[in-house]
Amino acid sequence: MDIGLGGAFDEPVASRQTYEKIRGAGDATAYDDVIVDISAMPRMVAMTSVAVLLRGLDLASETGGCVNLHVTTAESVTADLAVGQGSLRDQVSFVRGFSGELTAQTTKDLPHVWFPVLGESQRYRLDRIHQMLTPDEICPVVPFPSREPRRGDEIIYEHRELLFDTFQVEPRNILLACEYNPFEAYKQVFEAMDRYRRALNALGGCKAFVSPLSSKLLSIAVLLACYDHLFGEVPGKRLKVGIPYVETATYADPVQNLDDPYELYSMWIRGEWEIVAETTTDAGRPDEPKV
Asked: How many Å apart are CA 243 and CA 168, to the nearest integer?
């Protein structure tokens, strides 16, 4: 499928194009296993692809049948840092179906809680998303534990002025998410979002926004957390969940070392293990996830 990303000065269309293409590509339930390799995908294409397939397969399973959905990736922090960034768009876009009702007039007075998942060199994206959301509370998510023991500290140090002087982030609001276990990171982010949901329900609720600005694994983790708050078995009033991101407009030539270490991951997102799992979390994911 050809997916148009739009020109450098056009409106961001990657998530909408991906949604439409996959929805029109055929019936995924005709297969026993569906595998999405996100190693070289733009982030919005990858997250939208997984979200559309996951929702479609979940709905199909209600009428019988069970299709396995796998997400695979070759993860390398050093290689990702060396990729030519090019230029970024001016506009903030949302993963299709995860807008958080940001502009809805009926919910405009609800508090905004923002969970930016931090990575290196993300000052511009952080600033642009912050301007759009005007969050009432910010909970930065730092990758820890990480393959590089000091990576989390270095990310905080790089963005310290923006986070603490400009955004006025409370240090106690900083969350830690395991960089190399997406299901563990999923639980940490989901539970943090759920604490705000429960605490603010008495005041009418809130809107939660999660920005995936770190690794591919953590992007899938936050997508699952948002997905389960939107569609999973959550008691009481649901969160209004959004996934804002600033896409790349033009790509520069990468400067990569062929010797950069890669870790290969395969995540079994849904399928047969859900039928036989004896214990699950409140969000519906297994206590012993498949990685």
From this structure: 22
